[in-house]
Amino acid sequence: MRILITNDDGINARGLEVLHGIATELAGAGGEVWTVAPAFEQSGVAHCISYSRPMMVSELAPRRFAAEGSPADCVLAGVHDVLRDDPIDLVLSGVNRGNNSAENVLYSGTIGGAMEAALQGIPAVALSQYYGPANAHAEDPFEAARVHGADTVRRLLAFGDAGGAEYGLFYNVNFPPVPAAEVKGTRIARQGRRAGTGFGVEPQLSPAGRRFLWIRGGDQQRATAPGTDAEANLSGYISVTPMRADLTAHDALDPLSSAFA
Q1: Which residue among 88, 203, 231, 239 sits deepest, i.e. has the most Cβ atoms within 10 Å of its Cβ?
Q2: What residues have CB less than 8 Å from 83, skipping those under 6 apart?
Q3: CB-based contact 28:1 (threshold 8 Å)
Q4: For residues 165-171, average pLDDT
Q5: What percent of the chain shows pLDDT beyond 90?
Q6: pTM given for the model
Q7: What is the pLDDT of residues 56-98, one digit of tens each?
């Protein structure tokens, strides 16, 4: 198996090292793991691509490349340049430092990398490690992902894609904020929404008196509704959410058509 890995925390991120271990286990003795990851952190860029400017791609070591672009850029570079003559069997994106559950999905570069792979017709999984009081200051905060990652992806590959849809399936996996031994299992969950929380801004003056705005996140320890991703994670479960790039609100199509009839 030939696996391409990427992330949004950058080429030197600890989570990418964890992902390389997961991918190496999945690829097996005769497989290959290739890395094309952002040269610098790209958190929050979602499915952004560098459409209006070129990007430089540098080979740092055999099968290891850094790109001056987003995770989606990295997938495009991997598919159409670095591995243009070699078919890619799987794209893994992550392991993100922090969760990509609930509304975080919409901002996530980790998700953006997996989404681009799906648009290219390649099976893809985004993996993220939830942080919380039980693991944030641990020696290995990625332990749950490190221990359970390969088996989770292996089971998803066995399931595959039901097929028939215009947009290919990809998966969003979030590991709970607990040590690996305390993971209770896996739940298939829909994307949730943390009520009353979200991103905002915080103004700050520089020493020179200039005013800047910092983007500030919401409370990540607030659970979402039953049956959703963050609720599963905060209850100690790995969440798996099947996703497609189709943003259509299908439930609104018929009522809207009636309103315009």
Answers
A1: 239
A2: 2, 4, 34
A3: yes
A4: 94
A5: 95
A6: 0.96
A7: 999 999 999 999 999 999 999 999 999 999 999 999 999 999 9
161, pLDDT greater than 80: no
Domain at 2-259: CATH code = 3.40.1210.10
- Binding residue positions: 8-9, 43, 96
Q: List residues forming the annotated binding site for a divalent metal cation.
A: 8-9, 43, 96
Q: What distance in Å separates the CA atoms of residue 26 and residue 23, rounded to the nearest whole number? A: 5
Instruction: Report pLDDT digits (tens) over 89-132.
Output: 999 999 999 999 999 999 999 999 999 999 999 999 999 999 99
Q: Could you tell me the residue ranges of all domains in the chain?
A: 2-259
CA distances (Å), 168 to each of 98, 119, 121, 154, 171, in order? 25, 7, 7, 18, 10
181, 184, 189, 195: CA torsion to nearest 10? -80
Give 124's Cβ-side CA count (13 Å radius).
33
CA-based R_g, the chain, Å: 19
Asked if the peptide bond before residue 79 counts as cis, ω within 30 degrees of 0, the response is: no
